[in-house]
Specification:
It is a single chain. The protein is of the alpha+beta class. The chain has a single domain, classed as Nuclear Transport Factor 2, Chain: A, CATH 3.10.450. Helices cover 25% and strands 38% of the residues. It is built from four helices and seven strands. A hairpin with a 6-residue loop joins β6 and β7.
Length: 161
């Protein structure tokens, strides 16, 4: 995958860029990179996700669980692609501001929507990743996403929490 991340200046920045490229590749569908990108056991912190029966806490504690989460997040979309707005990295930390560009698919069931197949949906967020200093693998994921915009863009007028 060609990088859409600005060129890095030094060796550590290049390593951070490679980790970020792998992370984005996973979100963009290449889950084969999960075990070479994430520590086997990891810490995940993210927003609660509204459902038709309230909201649910997303609990992820392993690389395999993260891979399964990505697969379920991608389900029902005809297109599901993350673009980088900006990123920065220092030592063993990466922050990335992203935008999801997605297209509703025929089997979209994540939340009820009046949108038809083929309708584009976008929203954005910021992820903060912490790498293991020995292995260079992601050991902590912090995701802050604009779910209000996401649900608004899906045509929802109310969300039960």
């Amino acid at each position: 995958m060609a990088s859409n991340i600005p060129n890095a200046n030094d060796g550590n920045q290049k390593k951070l860029e490679n980790v970020l490229n792998n992370y984005l590749s996973i979100w963009n569908g290449d889950v084969s990179r999960v075990n070479s990108t994430f520590a086997p056991v990891l810490s995940f912190h993210g927003d609660r996700f509204p459902t038709s029966n309230g909201s649910r806490l997303i609990e992820i504690g392993t690389a395999d669980e993260f891979g399964a989460f990505v697969k379920s997040s991608r389900t029902g979309w005809d297109k599901y692609e993350f673009k980088v707005h900006a990123w920065t990295g220092y030592e063993n930390q990466i922050a990335v501001r992203w935008k999801l560009e997605a297209v509703v698919g025929a089997n979209f069931t994540i939340v009820p929507t009046t949108l038809k197949q083929g309708t584009p949906v976008t929203y954005n967020g910021t992820d903060f990743l912490i790498l293991d200093q020995c292995t260079g693998l992601i050991k902590e994921i912090n995701i802050a996403q604009d779910l209000i915009s996401f649900f608004h863009n899906l045509g929802l007028t109310g969300v039960t929490v």
